[in-house]
Specification:
mainly beta; 6-stranded mixed beta sheet; 5-stranded mixed beta sheet; 1 helix
Length: 677
């Protein structure tokens, strides 16, 4: 956003708002969600590996708003410390697809995997039906092209993709591929195949009794190989994982040898939300791929689920997700449930604000369907910094698992959400535990003339304690709506506590593009830890954030570099589950009261003058936010005193310097030229 060039308050406020909003979008160390990466980042096929106390993700990279945009991006590096799986860091691009020796425009870079050996990290990836390797000294890269996987006669191994790599405890190297489920041993150059490829899991159209090495082929029915091989060794047991023929299920088999034979054990997770073959699909499903990892004694399955996978965005944005899993003493895995809480280590605090794209349950009354069919609700990218749920057709349901409401049985509560209406009358029911038979705790109406721009709805709900799933049921009551029409888009949601908060914001208007400090004073009884954020109206972009000091005062800083545009923003006080908001306006330079033409600015500062400056102006007073500020005004190297500036004439270059206002503004200087109006 750009403030009027010399409107200091606007600039400062704008910068603060931007900083607060951005913090609310990124998963912070306070809690984690699914997806565990920022909403704008799509890393499917994620293979997790722990290197040097951090868990790194190796996958592919989808591009939103590109038809068939799956795997079209470069390989990106993300990691988190093993003791804080809520705090992911983007290290940048680890490997560009243009680095591949056979790169061609439009080439996809399919799933990847990584292994460490002899001081080097080897990235195995699949461009154009083969497996190639890149090498680095660091698990986050940058990686350099190393070569193609070849047979001993030099021929390139083809018709393979989705590689998985295992360096075993004895130092031997095994490559698994996903075009065909097969394994082969590599030499210590990590490129040359030195054994005959051995088939592992047959495809649907192959006979499991004669193809592969599954010891219990009759149990494999419905779970034959489709794609997405992954391999892990835990203790003395090897776990082979694959996307089965249903495409939305991740199956696994175990063995005492890296090359099998393997015994089929079952299903780890389904990204259709199914917990059994007879269950209704409760999430728009598609292919699944990822891997297992043990972190500090806890096992996890990393996988992806579909988003943006509708219409012109087919296969163009799959969310990186993860769930803790339980491994029984016999090595079998308890089937995992798809949740919103993911790596959080437990249910999410119901009184935090969340992006609605953490929904793990999205269906019509008939269930959910394969992602590209565009039937019922789905998680969507409205813009890079704005995500949520769309296509909420009649009686469709969005669910979130799980939320912790605490134990305050006498608490008065509200449900708050950010929506935009589609022009149809309806209502949204708020349920816990089950959308059909669970407890209805509240409801809010959406009138036919409701805003088609984003706005906030706050509605009272019944008191809830303990841990529960949350469901929103979208009921269109408008007779003019068709079965393809939908009620609203949803961007954020949270529960709030009814606690009386007094709030004063020291400024009311900022100018886009300028740095600013926004002072906030808060008062009230029984308030917990308090933070103040400046947020976009949809609640998804953070422009500034500050903790409240013991005196009930905070100053939220907005830096000039924050991209905050003219418009309305919210200054929001968070205290436990209590929320209080005030509006803050950011105006463009043309709307601010600054009027002179600016010739040069040594540092952009937003200054408000009590009257327009022109060649005929006799006096003017410098103010910031309506407060007078001491300043030295210099014209033609002469200090003008007593606020008598009758000497000014058109063409004079004025320097204002030494502006100071304790606790609110630092010292600034700027220049402008007096002009005739």
């Amino acid at each position: 956003m750009k403030c009027r060039k010399n409107s200091f308050l606007c600039r400062m406020a704008a910068g603060i708002i931007a900083a607060v909003l951005m913090l609310s979008v990124m998963p912070m160390s306070a809690f984690a969600t699914n997806p565990y990466l920022p909403s704008w980042e799509y890393i499917p096929d994620g293979e997790p590996h722990v290197f040097n106390g951090r868990v790194y993700i190796y996958g592919s990279h989808d591009l939103a708003d590109v038809y068939g945009g799956g795997c079209l991006g470069d390989y990106e590096a993300w990691s988190a410390p093993v003791d804080d799986l809520n705090n992911w860091t983007h290290h940048g691009t680890m490997y560009k697809k243009t680095q591949d020796a056979d790169y061609k425009t439009g080439m996809t870079m399919l799933a990847s995997d990584c292994a460490y050996k002899n001081g080097k990290y080897y990235l195995y990836y699949s461009p154009g039906g083969k497996v190639s390797v890149a090498i680095s000294d660091d698990p986050a890269g940058p990686f350099e092209y190393y070569g193609k996987v070849v047979y001993q006669n030099g021929d390139v191994m083809k018709e393979s993709f989705d590689p998985a790599i295992l360096v075993d405890d004895d130092g031997r190297n095994y490559l698994y591929t996903g075009g065909k489920s097969q394994v082969m041993e590599l030499s210590n150059d990590m490129l040359t195949v030195i054994s005959e490829p051995k088939r592992l899991v047959p495809r649907k159209d192959e006979d499991a009794n004669t193809v592969g090495c599954i010891t219990n082929p009759d149990d494999l029915k419905g779970c034959a190989f489709y794609e997405g091989t992954s391999i892990r060794k835990f203790g003395s047991t090897y776990y082979l994982v694959w996307c089965n023929e249903k495409t939305h299920e991740y199956s696994y088999a175990t063995s005492s040898s890296p090359v099998g034979p393997f015994t089929f054990r079952g299903i780890i997770i389904s990204n259709a939300g199914k917990m059994s073959d007879t269950d209704m699909a409760t999430y728009p499903w598609g292919n699944i791929h990822g891997g297992m990892v043990e972190i500090k004694g806890q096992m996890y399955i990393f996988y992806h689920r579909q988003a943006n996978g509708m219409g012109t965005r087919w296969w163009s944005g799959r969310q990186a997700c993860a769930e803790p899993i339980t491994v029984n003493p016999d090595g079998s895995i308890v089937r995992a449930e798809m949740t919103s809480q993911g790596l959080n280590g437990g249910p999410l605090n119901a009184f935090n604000q969340y992006c609605a794209d953490i929904a793990c349950y999205l269906r019509t009354p008939e269930g959910a369907f394969e992602s590209p069919q565009k039937i019922g609700p789905y998680n969507n990218e409205f813009s890079k910094d704005l995500h949520g749920i769309t296509n909420t057709t009649d009686m469709s349901i969005a669910g979130f698992k799980y939320l912790d409401f605490g134990n305050e049985a006498d608490l008065s509560m509200n449900f708050m959400t950010r929506i935009r209406a589609m022009g149809f009358e309806g209502k949204v029911g708020i349920y816990i535990d089950n959308p059909d038979s669970g407890r209805k705790i509240g409801e809010f109406a959406i009138p036919q003339n409701a805003s088609k721009d984003w706005y906030t709805v706050t509605t009272p709900v019944e008191n809830v304690t303990g841990t529960h799933a949350l469901y929103l049921v979208f009921d269109i009551t408008d007779s003019s709506a068709t079965d393809k029409d939908y009620l609203c888009d949803v961007s954020t949601f949270q529960f709030t506590k009814n606690v009386d908060i007094g709030m004063t914001v020291g400024v009311s208007q900022l100018v886009e593009g300028y740095a600013a400090n926004v002072p906030v004073t808060v008062s009230g009884e029984g308030l917990g830890d308090i933070s103040v954020k400046i947020l976009s109206k949809d609640g998804q972009t953070l422009y500034g954030e500050s903790a409240m000091q013991g005196d009930g005062k905070a100053v939220v800083r907005i830096d000039a570099g924050k991209k905050i545009s003219a418009g309305a923003y919210d200054v929001v006080v968070f205290s436990g589950g209590a929320v209080k908001a005030a509006e803050l306006k950011v105006v463009s330079p043309s709307e601010s009261i600054w009027s002179p033409e600016i010739v040069s600015v040594s540092e952009k500062v937003g200054i408000k003058f009590s009257e327009e400056i022109s060649a005929s102006a006799a006096k003017f007073e410098v103010k910031i936010g309506g407060l007078p500020v001491s300043a030295a005004i210099v014209a033609d190297n002469t200090v003008l005193t007593n606020k008598d500036y009758s000497q000014l004439k058109s063409g004079d270059v004025i320097i204002v310097s030494g502006i100071k206002y304790p606790a609110l503004f630092p010292s600034y200087s700027f220049t402008f030229m007096i002009t005739n109006r």
